Structure formats: C-alpha cells, structure tokens
Amino acid sequence: MFATEFLDIPPLQAAGGTVVLPGSKSISNRVLLLAALSAGTTTVHDLLDSDDTRVMLGALQQLGCDIVRSEGCVAIEGLGGRLKNARAQLFLGNAGTAMRPLTAALALLGGDFELSGVARMHERPIGDLVDALRQLGCRIDYLGQEGYPPLRVGAPALQPGAPIRVRGDVSSQFLTALLMALPLTAAAQDVVIEVVGELISKPYIEITLNLLAHFGIAVRRDSWQRFTIPAGSRYQSPGAIHIEADASSASYFIALGAITAGTSGQKDVRIEGVGADSIQGDIRFIEAARLMGAQIVSGPNWLEVSRGAWPLHAIDLDCNHIPDAAMTLAIMALFADGPSLLRNIASWRVKETDRLTAMAAELRKLGAMVEEGADFLRVTPPASPAHWRAASIHTYDDHRVAMCFSLAAFNPAGLPVRIEDPKCVAKTFPDYFEALFALAHTFAARIPVICVDGPTASGKGTLAATLAHRLGYHYLDSGALYRITALAAGRAGLALDAAHEVAIAALAQRLPVRFVGDQVWLDGADVTDAIRTEEAGMNASKVSALPAVRTALITLQHSFRQLPGLVADGRDMGTVIFPDALLKIYLTASAGHRAERRYKQLISKGFPAILDNLRTDLEARDARDSSRSVAPLKPAGDALLLDNSDLTIEESVNQVLGWWRGKQPFGTS
Ligand SMILES: O=C(O)C1=C[C@@H](OP(=O)(O)O)[C@@H](O)[C@H](O)C1
Ligand SMILES: C=C(OP(=O)(O)O)C(=O)O
What we know:
Its EC number is 2.5.1.19, 2.7.4.25. The protein has 3 domains: 6-22 and 246-442, Alpha-beta prism (UDP-n-acetylglucosamine1-carboxyvinyl-transferase, Chain), CATH 3.65.10; 25-242, UDP-n-acetylglucosamine1-carboxyvinyl-transferase, Chain; 445-663, P-loop containing nucleotide triphosphate hydrolases (Rossmann fold, 3-Layer(aba) Sandwich). The protein has 21 helices and 33 strands. Strand 11, helix 5 and strand 12 form a beta-alpha-beta unit. The relative contact order is 0.10. The mean pLDDT is 95.
C-alpha cells in the first residue's frame, strides 16, 4: 500500500495484462456477520482484507467470536445467537456495512454497547434504522447528534408482531441491516418489513437476500415494498463459503480496458475473481461501460475488456442501481465525445464524503466542465488536449475518489495526476495502486527519476531511501550494485582487476539483485551486511573503474525505472545513467563531517574504526573517483548542490522534496 502524503502518477500510455481482484466488501461483511450469528464454524475463502472487514472482524472478536486465520481462508466460530460478551465499545471506522448491520443485530441481541466510527461516520445518517428498531422495542440512544452515530445500544423490551416500517430512500443498508438481524426474532412468527418511500440501491438488497439464503433464511419479497422473514427461520452456516472479487473494484479495471490501447504484449485487461454472473449489483457497470464503447467478454469468474469505440460515447444514465461504480463512469466521461449525465445519485451525498460535490470539484480541476445537481452530475470533457490540466486530486478520505481519479493519468495531454492521501484506498482495496501499476505502461522517459549523486559517506543512501519512501518511488542503490558485483566476483574466484574485466562484466549483467526496504538480496541471500564493510567499499570502487562492468550494469540500472518513479543514488546517476532525470541532487559534506559519520556508523555496528584513517581513506577515494577515465565523480551540469554538513536528515529530505514539488505542475491547489 502507498502510505505516502501524495502519489504522483506519471502520464500513462497503455495497459494490458491480468489483475486478480480482492474480495467483495459487501459480501465479506455480510458473510462475517451471518457466520457469527449462526451456530458452528464457517470457513470463508478469499475474504477481503481491508479496513472495512478488519473493523467487522475486530467487532465480532470483541463480542466473543473465535476467528482463526489460515492460508487463503478465515474460520468463524459462530455464536449461535448468544453473545459471549454483552458489553463492548466497538469502533467501526467508516464501514457502513459494519455500522448499520451490527447496530441492528446488537439492538436485538441486547447488552450494553457503544458503536462509533471515524468523524465522517458520525455524519452518515442512521436515524431511519434506529426508528425502525425502536418500533420493535429496541433501546438505542444517540451519543452525539440525533440521527447519527455514535450510538449506545441497550437491552431491548421486544414487542414483535406488527410490520416494521423502514425508509429506503437514504440508504439500502438500513433494510439490509433489518433483513440480516430480524431472523433473531422470527422463531415463532413471521416478521414483516415494509419499505417506506422509494428503495434506493436495490441490487444490494439482492446480495443480502442471496446470502441470507446461503445461511438458511428464505426471505419472501413482494416487489420492493414488503419483505417477510418466515417463522422458524434460523441461521445455518453453509460450512464453507467463497467470496467473489469486488465488482465495484472491478469497475476501475473495466474502465482501464475501455480507455487504454492495449500494450504490445497484451491487448486486453483481464480481470479475475468476478464474472458477468456475479451476485453483486455493481457488475452491471459492464452494461454502462459497453454503452460507452468498451468491448467486454466474460466467463466464469473472469472478464476481459478492451477498447472499442474511441473516443468513448457520452451517456445519459440512471445510476441508482450502481451508486459506487457510477463514480468510475464520471471519470470515463472525461474521455467521451460529449457531455455525460449521471442521474439519480443523491445517495452520493451521504457516503464517505459528499461525493457529488467532491467529484464535481476534482473533475473541474482536470479541466472538465461539471454541473452538480441535487441528485445528478453532468460532465463535459475538456474540449481538447490543451484544455486538460495537471491536478492534485483531493481525496476526502474516500477510497473511490482516489481509485477512479488515478485513471485520469491516461489523459491525452500527457499530464501527471497527483492523488493526495493515497492510503485511503485501504477501505476496500489496499493494493489498488500496485495493481494499477502492474498493468499500466508508459514511456520510460515519462517515469520520473530523482538522482542523488555525491561522494562517499555524504549520506546519499539515507537521503535517497527516505525520499523514495516519502514519494512511494522505487529505490536504486547503484553503489550497492558495484559492491554486489565485487562480492559476486570474489565469490566466483575472480580477481578484481582489468585482466578479469570481461568475466566480471558478464557476471554483472545477470546480477540477481533486489532492494527490499533497506535490505539487499543477491540470489535469494541477504547480503546487506556483507556489502557494507570498508573492504567491500574499496572493492566496489575497483570494479566500478572497469568500463565493461559499468556498461553491463547500465541496462540493469535502467530496469529500475518503473512506475510510479525512481530515486537513484550513486556517483553517475545524473551524469551517465539517467541524464534526463527531472531532479538531480549533488550531495556533499566536508571530509571531516563525512569521516565522522562513517566512524559512528562503523562503531555502532561493532566494526573497529580510526577516525583519522577513515578521513585519509575518504580523501583518497574521492580523488580516485573523480579522476577515473570513465564517468568520473562530478556534479551533472543541471544538478542542484546540497551541502548537508550542518543539516539533519529531515532537513535535507525536506529541502529536496521542496525542490521536487517546485518541479511539478500541480501548483498549490
Ligand atoms: O449494502 C451494501 O453493501 C452497500 C450499499 C450501498 O450503499 P447505499 O444503500 O447507502 O446506497 C453501497 O453504496 C455501499 O458501498 C455498500
Ligand atoms: C459507500 C461505500 O461504503 P459503505 O459500505 O461504508 O457505505 C463505498 O464503499 O463506496
């Protein structure tokens, strides 16, 4: 997951390949609760692992449910209608699928519970559900604002009998909550729920009914107005259940296939885990994408999508049945041949954020013209490539804003897109951006590189690795490549001299190296410490003076330039390896400061060291590095000099990040 302050996505060109999607949030949280209410063990395969399911799992554990995780599945020991803990404070984040159904279930089971969430959850309505439950004799108090969480749930004085009336026009989750919880009171008599007002988001009720049926409860439905839970209903675990991949998450990759030309290797975007026969309503996003021109074929649990009409056709669509995936249509509308109208989406206002206002504001930043109505959005795409703008997308802690706006990086103007707070995708799809980058392609020249060059012990490694971490970029420690080459050559019995140049170069070309955080791996072995000795440093300097070795390592170094970007540290990154890098830093510090830092580093690792000797060695090495015939150590002409003698690491990092921001086209929006 990208836990950076922002994620800059370079302009993207094409996409192709296979994505295996994580499980459905809506199915996962329903199955978890139904499994907990049943007797016996339910083994859940391919459960979504995200913020929303974690809060549900955490709550169930607090209530006394045993949960055992093993490879690919989670076993839930059901409570059989009796809570082990009848007092608990449950934090439910921003998961509507946890807050609403748990409120209903706990209000009927009785106890002393406090249900709360993040600040936004306390702005998301729950009054219609509370009103419905109170008709039954449930005791629920508002701890903050009337009609909103946090809530206190007490012991009910149940008066079953009359039909329970619930409003259906704010969120379908209120009806879902009642449908899942009311079998608790249906032992002796039918329980009837009547929907007041037009029910929204109907396909989510179909998911609920489908899963209730899996757990032995056959609800009778009369149109969308009246639901009857038959007397004698009892939750029965299906034993094992498999969770389909999330159809709303699929929408981003369906859109990806629709708006991008395939890559030379792969024409289509293939989505695994969910197919056209999904039980999730958001699968009907396919119909909308087809209307816009996408070509989509499907089989059992898979979809293949490719670009059809281009530009996409504008659409005018009632999106009430696909409220979540419809946000993706708003982004596809940027690539359409005219204005698109997404109608009947008033519920957007009470989700993770006010999505109507948020989408309108962010789409406008990209250059679209947007009309925001009470319950609709009309999106007119930028009139020409020149009308697109590079934008820093504010994401409002809304996973879907972050995910759908990433697709704007395919804009025809070749502009990057900044996604603020990218970790908000953790609500339903923690590895969304990794999945996107695995399929997306762009020209290497468009992938940003920051070069940090400088003499030994200047702190390049720390600075570069920290920058990479802060920006979510890959990290290349090119100095380590020479050290690793030297180590590998030594282990192969090759002397590090010109006579063995060809053999060492051949070895270097196939170097199986990986940088994992601050670890260095060579051919499956951790060589982090082995390459950090003074001797390894001297040996690296020797092999780096062999021109054939440098040539062999160039391809290897270029291969580190991958989405979303790279920070490369070394001695010739800006001058030789990545001459087109957007930002080049030449990092220096006085020989005295550097010797002192190296001294402390060695002593802290338990290596013997003498300060004066270190200083003499450093000076000798500087002289050798800057006088060698190939790629001598010198600042690139366009490098910015940073002397960090008197700077902390944080100060150096902030300085470079400041320069980096200054080079981006996002302004301060
Ligand atoms: O029941 C569900 O799983 C959901 C119902 C929908 O909410 P509304 O019924 O509030 O539209 C949807 O937006 C949400 O992401 C999940
Ligand atoms: C509206 C959403 O979430 P929730 O389940 O919290 O309502 C969503 O995932 O888009």
